[in-house]
Each structure stands twice: as structure tokens, then as C-alpha cells.
């Protein structure tokens, strides 16, 4: 098998102007970044207002396992397959963070014959959006500490600063730090920490904002600290929402690239799917819906995290209709949830596979509660046996198709594309969560209907934070559940289809600018670390500027 | 007077492809970033090998004062004036850092009718080079701490880690910090700090590297720490020079933009002029020398800092001939060095002005020691009186011209352009410092000949560090003196033309990758702070994406 980068280098890329023209974007709205990447001016949206939206296809997955499910690869393959059978399709994805690129994953631009290109650029810096988010985020941090140093007019309590600093890197040493040491010239000592940029509220805001004015408004409402007299301090009190928005002027414009088969792809924004909503920007998907008949978009992690947030929060915020949901499964993941260990997944085991179907079934049942048609796609690996594939088809009662997108590109996803087209509906999707419910009501519904818990338990910390949120009028905001991606429950060890357990909310975090409250149902890592031998040691560049070690 | 941004918006910019064509860069080497910015592929240099270099005009200044001297504005104006009188000229400048943009200055793209454009982009993110430097720098930090956490095979002494983290922000709270708190999952606690990206050794390396291979080689030689058994730990021991260089793949390519009058400008790299060498990248200037007959380049701070480093280190490293040096003076700065306070500078005072000429004279004498012709240019402000200007001309014995570049653009610098052309020489420039001298010899020559000191004193710390450098074979590297920019001496309070004092070296720092040793002759700020009311509160963006508050 050729490496991703070898396959990528052999691709026949078209100039980005040509890709843009293909979907009706004229040069006046195009800001090229080299020959194969362009930002699209959001002003184009005004000219498309009266155009009907295309159909939205949401790709999600069963509960992930250490083997990897290939959701991005499937999304890319599906979009290419739709184009192959004569439909006009765009795929919309999140931007990769540098942390995982240098950590373990090595990249996040699909794989094999289903990649978005140029993968080196997409994985490293791309059009600088994530760096812009970091800069806007850290400007706020610097202004907070400067404000306190120079008289602290707002009376900010240094022990009640909620706004941490950020960096797009896996750097565990920055999780908990003390800043401002060395005497009064450097400010005052206080505890602080860094989170990875994908976990920044600014990243969430960038992906939710309608336009630059909405972006600025959301930024101005970020709650950064509490004052000595218990008032909430917002960005607007520090008067730097304009500067922060200015830093994001270009970052708000969607990035257009292409797949290995020249299917247009918007790759824009990259919020985490635990601490935030986990899908690419609303602006990019809205733009895609105006420019294509079928938009394939991917939600982070499994259906209980990414798809739930998409269906209960992102789609209602954006005003999307969701026309069909594709859920990615693999034989390996099914066997894992059926009880096998990671090193046993390569061996045939029909029984474990059938047992693990409970996980997939739970996600399918969950998704049907949103009144959307669900189709299953099995991402076939070369270790899957014929018998396993046959037994899967026999036992999976939901419409399903096998995909070979990694190996064959769009060609390998044509069955899936046809199945998707057969199942598309309009105006049926309904969120499970109603906006005007209280936080507790929302959490209760999710815990019972999606996470299959018996009851919800709140820790004392969570109860106290809930009172705080009520006091300040934030208790009917949308809720983002932050929990493990390794289980449908709040316990990473509970594989397959856990039920009848107590779902515990440990704390809440307010993202008043983004417009949601995060309910923490587990330890959420907001700053990953590098491993003993990080992928960075595999990455190199030759004298002609060719990069190796990304995948 | 119109604001810089108002003037900028009225400019008739040409598409960057057209600007490129003007100097013979064909599309194949051009990577556009939007309509008005492009990176130029360094592969073009191979095709130009046999072309004769143009003439190099170095712009420097007398000792700066709080009033500002307008060196960038003059450089831009001079290059435009050369084009106006029929010469083919390019200006090469450093990239602005975000720190000063949000701090005090508000921008660094020239001013009035002598600006490089689009100034909003140049001031905010530009083509992402500085972010790329930050990412490469911080990847190294994360790898060092991960290495120690996972067994510390190299035996790195956590108390002897020289490599701090970096951020492109004025953030004093990060100057001195403790990282790795919170238990062993987060590593181990140790003292650390952040420096601003312009002060990063990676930035210096980017601006000195011949090509990507040289860049990688220099990175691999960076000394990051000492081991328990007193060995020096280099990047190559951690094996991530490839990943760091990969992050800089695009950053190494010069950025082409244009001035308000469509003069081509390379803006590339932004190292500090105290802790590093303070001029734009060698690659950009070399490219400009192949593409134009006259290249105007600017060195940071005053002639004793930027020009000295250019003439003793950058030009010998790059192999430049330096054909003429322009030294920028202002009536205000002369009066300041003549003893007036900042608030007295607007009033006519010929006597103070004449007294302050000593500062200018010292710099001129210094520069002549390099066998280069020197011309003086007086940057005229509207507060300067006719009498002051006349008396200046009477007392300044060096060839000089008045410039009005801020007010009139290239037209206002034609006298200067003609004077420059008259004074250009070839193959006369000679560095003052010889490469094979010891660090002490080099410092002694600079202290006596340039800083006009009686003697050089070394603190005990400096002496001990000198022994360390000798032990490890770094004692004949080029020397970069880090000292105050406010005086020719090492004491910011000594204005005008100090002499016969003791020049004190407090410490040394090794930049083994960049290939120099920094001799610290003062407190050098490597992480600035924001002021009480930072410029960030003046910056805003409207619904059409227009940014205000930059200048």
C-alpha cells in the first residue's frame, strides 16, 4: 500500500479558481492562498440569499475505538461518489490542529484515495485560521493581566479569572502554571494554564458566528472573570472585542480546497467535540448548501457527542434542515465493543462482532429520535473476513452499504451514495432538546434518551455552579455535554451499550460568548500532551521542500 | 492630515502578479495570498545565479528618541523616489510583530504617503511567517518537557534548560512562570518564561538561512539545555529539526507586496535588533538584489545597533557588497540629544539642535570606519522651522538631503535619491570585525570604535559564561551586542555623544543555531508588556471587514 503522501503527490489537482468556478464562485469572491487553496469572501452569501439550500448529509460514527473508524475518509469518499454519479456535492470538514499532527495522529486530512489536498498545507498552518484564533485569545489574556497591573479599575479578582491562555500544541507542561513571577514589573503571581486552541471559546465562536458583526457581538459577551464584588467581567468591559474581531477578519472566511478527485471541500474551523460543538463553521456549511445540491459534513467523535450536538445545537443555531444521517461502523470497532482487546481485532470473530452491534444499534435508535433517516456504512478494512461482512449485513437491520473509500476513493463509496440518495427526506428533522427548557431538563433528556442512564447525579460543585448560572441568567442556554468519547456513558470503561447507570455532572462551564453552557460529565482534557516518541520525529522536509511523515 | 488608513484605502494597488512581472518574477514562482500579497518561491534564485547583483542601500538612523524618526517611512520613500527617477528599485523590510501593533505603535508599515500595503494584512498575521516561527519554537519546548517526563534518556537537567517558550504578544505576565504544576501527569515543575517571537532564535535563523537545508542544519545546532553530566543538548539530539523545518517551509519564502506608489517591497522576517541582528531575511534581500538595480533595506534601531550588526555580521554572512549608507535624522531628535525634554521638541531651538548634531556626527564617523559612503537625510516634520532647517544644512558637513516622504511619498524623496546615486561606490565596504578574532577582541573593538567607551568591564557572570563558551568551542562566533537603543553607550540615560566610560558586559547568551553569541550590555527586554490603555482598544472592524486603529 502506498503512503498517503505518495498518493497525494500523484493526484491531478486543478487550480483552485477552476474548482471554485465548478460551483459558481467567481474570482471576485476568491482570495487564493497559492494555487490550490483559497478563502471565499463571505460577501458571496448576500448574492446567494434567494437560492434554495442543497441537502445536508451528516456523517457520524459508532463509539470510537483505538483502531480508528475512518469517518473523515468516509465523508470525503461519499462526497466524491456523489459527484461521480452526477450529483453536485461539496464536503465540509474541520481544520486539523497542530497538536495531534505532531502528537500521534500525524494529520487529519482523510487517508488513502480519500484525501483533501494539499495535505501538507492543510495539516501545517493551512490559511492561518487557528493561529488567528490563538492570537485573539491570547490578546485577551494579556489585556486582563495588564488591566489588573495598571490599577484594576474593574476590580477583577485574580483568583476568579476564568480565561486561560491558549496554544496550538500538545504541551502538558502548560496545563497548570503560575504566571506573573519576578516582581511587580511582571504583574502579580497567579495560577493559570494553557488550553489547546481547538478548545478555545474563540474557536467555538468562529464556527458559530453568522458574520463579522455577530462574531464581534459574541466575543464581547465572553465572561472572562468575576470582580471582587461578584460582578461578571466581560470582554466588552475591557473594550477589545474590536481588536479581537479584527484579528479574525480573514479567519472567518471559509477555506476552499479539493479532494484527490477534485471534489470541492470547505475546511474551516476546528472546535473540540467535547468542550465545544465539534463541527466545522456554520458559515462554511451554509455557503456549501448554497453552492451544491448535496453537502456532506462530519461531526466529531461518536453520534452521542458530535451528532447530538449537531442536531440539538448547531443545526437549530444555523437553521439547517438535516436530510439524512450516515453512521460509520467498522468490523474492528464492532468486535472491540463485543469485548475483544485491541490486539485481537485482526482475527475473525463473528460472535464478538454481533455482540458489538448493540453499540451501533443504540446510536441508530438515538438518531431516529431526531426524525432523521439513518443509513449505516461499514468502512471495510483488508483484515475483515468475508464471513464477518456477510454476517454484518445479515444482522444490521438498518439500510447499509459497504465502503472502500480509503482503497478506491469515490468509486468505493458509490453504493453508499446511492443508499444516501434513496433515504433523503425533507423537513422532518426535529431537535430532541427544546431551547426554553432549563439546563437540568435538557441534561435529563440527554442522559435518558441518548446516554441511556437511569438518573442524573449532580456533585456539590455542579449544584453550586448551577446556582451561579441561574443567578446570572444563563440557565436556559443550550447545553454542551463534555464527556468521554470512548463510551455512550460517562465512563470510558463501559463499552458497547451501557444502560441503567447514574450519569454524573461534576461541574459546569459558561461559554457566554459562544452561547452555551458546558456540563462536565468527566475529566476533559483541554491540553493534550506529546507521547514518548511523538510523530514530530518522523516528520522531515527535503531540499525541494517536500514534507514526509504526515498522514 | 488624513490618517494612514484613509490614505492607504485610496491607493491604486496593482495585482501582485503585475508587480511581480515588473521585476521579472514569472507566475510559476509566485504563490499569491489574496490579490495583493504573494510569496516568492526560493527556487527562482537558481534561475538568477548568473545575474549581477544590484546596489545595496542601507538605511539606518541616529539614536532614537520618544518622538520617532521615521526610518521605515524614509526607506519606503527613497525606494519610490528611485523608481520615480527611472531606476529599478525594491525596498526590503522586516515584518511587524503583533505585540507592538496591540501595544503602543499600532503598526509598522511606514506612514502617510510612504506606506507598504495592504497595511492591515501586513500588520495582522500577514502570510503567517511569525506564527510559523512561534509554532516551530514551541514544538521544541513541548518536546523537551515530554522527553524529560518519559525517562529523560539524554539526562537533561531541568534547571539548565536555556530554551524558553514564545508568543507573538506583549504579555509581561509570561516573562517568569512556573510550568508543569498539578502532579506527574503534567510533567514536573520548573521555572520557565516566554519571550516574544521576534526575539526567538528561530526568527534569527529564518532570516540568516540560505535555503531550507541550511535552515534545518542551523536548527539542528541550537543548544537547548545542558545535561546532568554537563554535555550540551542540541535539537539534533531530540531529532525534531525536520519537523521544525517543515513548519517553516513556507515561512522561508519572501513576501512580495507593494508600496502606495506600486514600488515592489519584500517584507520578510522580523528579528529584534538587540538580542538578534535586526534586519529582514537574507533570502529576501538576495532575491531583491537579483531583481532590481537598487535595493533599499532598513536596519533596526540606530546605527550603533542595526547598522553595526548589518555591516559586521549580516553582510559578511550573506556576501553582500554595501554600496552606500543613509542615516536618518530629525530636527526633533537632534534637539532631544541637545538636551531638550520630550515636550519641548515642538519649539524652535537652534542651539539645542546644533548641540545634538554630536550624536549624528558620532554615528557618521562610526559608519565611515566600514569604508562606506554615508549620506544624511533629514526627515522633515511640520514643526521644524525654516531657521532650524537652514542651520542644520549649514552645520551638517556630510552630504545631506531633506525628505518629505510622509507627506509627499516618492516625490518628497527625490533629492535624497539623487544624492544616494551620486555617492554609491562598489567593492569598498569592509567589516570592522574580523571573523577569527576572539569574542573579547571583537567586543573591545566595538566598545572603543563604535560605542566610544574607554574600556570593557566583564561581570563575574560574564567571565564565567565566557569560560563556558570557550570550553565548548563557541568563542570565535560572531558577536551580537545587546544593549540599549536609547544611547550610543550601554546606559540609556547618556544621550548625545557619550565617551570615556566603561562598557560593561553582564552576561553572554549562545545562539549556536543562528551562529552568534549575544553579549548582554544591559537589561534586554525579550517580552514587552501592554500599556495601561493599549492600542488594542482603538482597533475595530466594521461589518464590511474594514479595520480601523492601525497606523
From TrEMBL, chains A, B:
Pathway: One-carbon metabolism; tetrahydrofolate interconversion. One of its GO terms (biological process) is tetrahydrofolate interconversion. GO terms for molecular function: ATP binding; formate-tetrahydrofolate ligase activity. Residues 340-367 form a coiled coil. Its EC number is 6.3.4.3. It holds the Pfam family FTHFS. The keyword Lipid metabolism does not apply. The keyword Coiled coil applies. Signal peptide: none annotated. Keywords: ATP-binding, Coiled coil, Ligase, Nucleotide-binding, One-carbon metabolism. ATP binds at residues 65-72. InterPro entries: Formate_THF_ligase (IPR000559), Formate_THF_ligase_CS (IPR020628), P-loop_NTPase (IPR027417). It catalyses: (6S)-5,6,7,8-tetrahydrofolate + formate + ATP = (6R)-10-formyltetrahydrofolate + ADP + phosphate. NCBIfam families: PRK13505.1. Belongs to the formate--tetrahydrofolate ligase family. This is Formate--tetrahydrofolate ligase. It comes from Thermosipho atlanticus DSM 15807.
